[in-house]
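Q: Convert this sequence to structure tokens.
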Amino acid sequence: MDGLEPGVAVSGPLSYGPIPLAAPPFLALDPRVRPDIERAIGGPVTPAAYAYVPPGPEKEIDGATVRLIEPHHERALARVMALEGPRLPFPQGGVVDVLDDGREVRSHERHHHLHNGNEVIRVVFDGLMFYQLMALAAGLRIAHFHQFPGTKVFAPQLVHAGGISYWHRLRPSEIAAGIHELPWSAHVDALLLEDFNKRPDAPAGYRARSTRLAASLRQSAADLAGLREELRAKLTSSGVDVTDPRWAAVLD
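A:
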């Protein structure tokens, strides 16, 4: 919260580019400036995901929580962001492209997918990104109290594996074949879930998820003991103190 000095709408340790937005997680938002933002852009805005059009049947990231971009938003957006085409902003961290085959990819990968014959059917401003752009349009600043690039960070001050809610979309066969690497979020997800399910009151849904994850990991040629050792080695090599008792849930 210390970064929320006057004139700052959002402060965080991680950064997106090329427009230097603060990337989730660990964001601090100053609620006092929201009325100022809304007055400056001519209408309401909320820290949520936004899209120009409603999600289609291939929705995933932009499911039930997406808000629709309104004319006052578009006018404000034109002050701070260039467009590559109608309702198609230039690639930016926090902007997700939805392709014609239903995949959602980072907008930074856009021209790779266009070269391979895909088409971008809509874009989604991931949660908290659009709000920051509206804050910039209102003349406020985004502060960075550390300079960690991106969102996948392992450092003594901060660890964020990222993607813990959707890593399981990766195909186990591709992971086992080395086409995709099992992400660190999978390690943390599986190990935290195993620890939590030791509780006698763990919900049945959590136990069912644990069973599904265990099956997925087996297909990916991975097991919990191996994940634990790999995570310990990764943290140690990044300067993280693995003897800190707060890591016990995933390392012991």
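The first helix runs from residue 34 to 41.
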